[in-house]
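Renewal narrative, Specific Aim 1. Our central claim is that a sequence can be written position by position from structural information alone. The example that follows is taken directly from our test logs and has not been curated for this report. It begins with the structure tokens describing the chain, in the order in which they were read.
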């Protein structure tokens, strides 16, 4: 006969993390211009070891997924200019010069906030760099929408501090 644990059947109060409580820190980009960021995630490959009529599977390499950061593009300070300053560390369009990874790779921080503004979780993205950027759309028919930027960020790895 199963024994019922009272802790499992009675109400347990909890506070969920919500999507709109975060601050992201990127060197050179004001935090208040960052509108959203995709979640941190990874995938792991598998290695199949064949042996006669059967096989075993073991874990392969872990690959961190790219992040997609959405930003507002205010007039001043310009969000597009802030992104391009980071991109110029990767590649200078005028001269064709590429930069060293030591210059363009950055460590980013995502602080997840609780209801009173306390930090309840912290992700550190190590070795982040810009893989792609889109600088919004322009349309005569849309007079109410704010201009947004979309930046795809690659990274070496992530650390969940707490």
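The sequence written for that structure reads:
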């Amino acid at each position: 006969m199963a024994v019922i644990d009272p802790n499992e059947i009675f109400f347990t109060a909890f506070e969920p993390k919500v999507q709109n409580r975060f601050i992201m820190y990127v060197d050179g980009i004001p935090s208040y211009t960052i509108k959203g960021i995709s979640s941190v995630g990874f995938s792991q490959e598998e290695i199949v070891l064949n042996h006669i009529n059967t096989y075993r599977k073991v874990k392969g390499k872990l690959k961190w997924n790219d992040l997609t950061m959405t930003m507002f593009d205010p007039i001043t300070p310009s969000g597009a200019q802030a992104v391009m300053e980071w991109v110029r560390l990767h590649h200078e369009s005028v001269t064709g010069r590429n930069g060293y990874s030591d210059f363009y790779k950055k460590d980013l921080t995502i602080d997840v906030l609780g209801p009173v503004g306390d930090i309840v979780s912290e992700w550190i993205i190590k070795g982040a760099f810009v893989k792609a950027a889109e600088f919004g759309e322009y349309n005569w028919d849309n007079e109410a929408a704010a201009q947004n930027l979309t930046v795809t960020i690659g990274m070496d790895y992530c650390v969940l501090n707490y």
